[in-house]
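Structure Section — protein described below
Tokens — whole-number codes for backbone shape
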Amino acid sequence: MSTRLAAEQAYERRYAEWRDSTSHPALFGRIALAWDEHGELALRMLNPDSGVFAPADWYVARAILPELLARHLGGNYQSD
């Protein structure tokens, strides 16, 4: 088993444990992993219903990055 697959499965298990025990299941809107895969940056998004990561297109990331940056920067991020 690859290190990435093992890490992904560990995140899936931890998410399932958290989801089953939290009083705030909607706390996370999206959870993603990104890493280098054969010289390309691969993006995988967690399906909150199944609890499993799946390949995702980068257009999804472009749609959510401005919101994430705004939160991180205290609402001071302006996209193009």
Observations:
- The beta strands are 32-37, 40-47, 52-55.
- The mean pLDDT is 82.
- Residues 3-72 form one domain.
